[in-house]
Amino acid sequence: MIKTLFLGSNFEALETLKFLNAQKDFKVKGVVTQPDKPIGRYKEVKETLVKEYALNHNIEVFYTNNEEYKYREILDYLQPELIVCKSFGEIIPNFALKYPKYGAINIHFSLLPKYRGAVPIQKAILDGEKKTGISITKMGPNLDEGDILAQQEIDILPNDTNESLRKKLVKKAPSLLIQTLRKWINNEITPIKQNSSQATYCWKRDISKEKAQIFWKEYTADYIDRLVRAFIPWPVAWTVINGKKVKIFEVEIIREEPLRPGDFGYDQKNLLIGTRDGVINVKKLQVEGKKAMNTSEFLKGTKVVSIQ
User: Fold this and answer.
1) 308 in a domain, yes or no?
2) How confident is the model at residue 186 (pLDDT cuts 50, 70, 90)?
3) Predicted confidence (pLDDT) per residue in 61-73, tens digit
4) Number of domains in the chain
């Protein structure tokens, strides 16, 4: 069995860890994850999903906190032959990447070299891409620049959100990883260097709360639709209705309605807003301080007087 060290934290990492741990030819000797931290309004301290799973399956848990000496201690203790990384949240020191016999392998949710960085799914939707995918790479010292061992494409459907597309990728990634690892260990893969001249990058600031505001007069209907889908479940696209911040969860594009950019109209079920090149019908929203609701429910007790 290949002695493996797993690095990861969130639900994407969890699904990969589960699948990897179930294989007879790999032995997950330990996981490195993010420390417990306070979550939500009440700041309840919670452990990562990866830690919870590891403890329940007698896998040792470690933290590094971006400190190199901790990486050295973990490697000297476990002596892994392989490192697998998914959604970890730290820059891994170069010496750690070189330590294992079979290297350090990363799972990235884009078709590298496009969308290197932190938010590739959101940015692919926002940019109107028709396809994205999974890249399995041998990790190097620079961000998502490692040689490619395998890739798998997936279509981005017109109604895909960041959430729905991510779930599809999470479901497909573990089996692709295992197939790739077995070939890699058996010397059946020739790594392919990325063409850095074709690289694009995406950063957390690309999906900031400020970037989530909808400017009806400036944006096209298509861009607003993509913005709404890309920013679910966070930070969620928003606008201002009757002076209050309103999150927008679902829209549809209507081409034939005659509304000028920024103008609006509504009836008992529909809230129509003009954009630069068409009309958006808001389907689901959430007024600050209230629960999310269908627009028809919102309109029952609300007279819309202004939209910014």
Assistant:
1) no
2) very high
3) 999 999 999 999 9
4) 3
